[in-house]
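Example 3.
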Amino acid sequence: MQVSEVMQELNRFIRTTFRVADDDPEFQDDVHIFDYGYVDSFGAVRIIEFIAERFGVQITDQDLVTHPLNTVREIGTLVHSRLPRS
Amino acid sequence: MPEITFSLATVDPGYQSQLLYALRFASEAIENARVHAGQLLVTHAAGTDPDEVRRKVDKLVQRYAKREFGFKEVIHFENRRPTRNSDVYAELLRRRWVTPVGQGHMILRGEAARLWAFLDARFQRDFAVPLGAELEVYPATIACTTLDRVAHFTSFPEHIDFVSHIREDVDLLAGFAGRCRDQGWKPSHHDGVMDQVEFAISPSCCYHCYEGMEGQDLAKPGRTTTMVVNCHRYEAGNLTTLSRLRSFHMREVVWVGHPEFVKAGRAEADRRIVELARHWDLDCTYENANDMFFTDDYSVKASFQRQQEAKRELRMTIPQEGRSIAVFSSNFHAGTFAKAFQITVAGRPAVSACVGWGYERWVYALYSQFGLDSEEWPAHLRDEYRAFCAGSKP
């Protein structure tokens, strides 16, 4: 799976779950999803659960403290790096 | 007094002082609580059910043991300097600059009141005005329906001072007045005569601000407002000196608008508060923080707040109490409040942030660090205060 595919799925999940308008020009892969008000603390928990369920990747406490995980690109890149290699 | 011991092995040391604070609301039977050698020691009133106390304390310990987003600590600025270490509070009482008038209620007068006014003038001049904030004036009370909409009840149910009145009934009113005349006022005189609660005393400055913009589509980039509110928070057994009051005054500057505008405003206030702390040579830190949510999802909210640096505090050392207190906080709410009141900016959902100063805490912290004689204060602070007292602007 390519990193772009991971990001695409994350993008779709966030758009659907947090009702981002289809024509919102600011919702890009590099937008800060928390600062821009798309996702709150409980939303962040839902994203972590989605990642575990869909990709089998666990995001730990430590990851959240040490990695910047605020944009679709940042989250997608970390998830992709943890995917099992076939 | 009976004592119960709890293990704190699962609670991050950074959260333990917050757990101690929250314990005061866990049970009326709790007399005291302290941490010693990694254990929590709770004493409770004789004759109360220890199993019931244990159950309630356990519930809180579990709440603080979870860490969904880790415990992130960031100190953005730190300044250490020699400070005094004397019983400032006793001296303030002796001079009658401060007079308690009920649990957590204080009158400030004389020099203490003047210092309060100086601080307000200074924060207006160097924050509210240059940040372009419009003055707004708010009622002291707030509708419970408004607090419900901002989810205050689910985050801080323990703090709220509710307001009510005697029902419109000549017999009830005459009966209440008669009982007060004959026996003096007693809480029991209210039994059966009060109306339902509809209002509370504002627990925070800025809720009216969002309520006042309900349904508005703001012009880009957004609005900046400022206000001073006499806020109330019930604090159970946590009241101490002027460090933590039930009734206190706060000034806030609030931004509502586009994320870039709101973030830039908050960043500028952050920069200015550090500059001020350095200029006045305060013994302090400026660090990330979290609200003390009193709810089972404490961990999600608190650790996320810390992880995102949604809250930062200027904490001033109180030497004689061996701890620090927050005198300024900087808060980013993302879309929480704007969403609750359908506020948009140029058609997109708005976000908000605020910074706030707790004035009684500032007064107490300055006196604690530098003493009551302003001539002995750090030079910049002394000179500005002297100019203010002479009638010129600080």
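Residues 3-65 of chain B form a domain with the Alpha-Beta Plaits fold (CATH 3.30.70.100). The interface with chain A takes residues 67-72, 259, 263, 297, 300-301, 303-305, 307-308, 332, 334-336, 338-339, 348-351 of chain B (CB under 8 Å).
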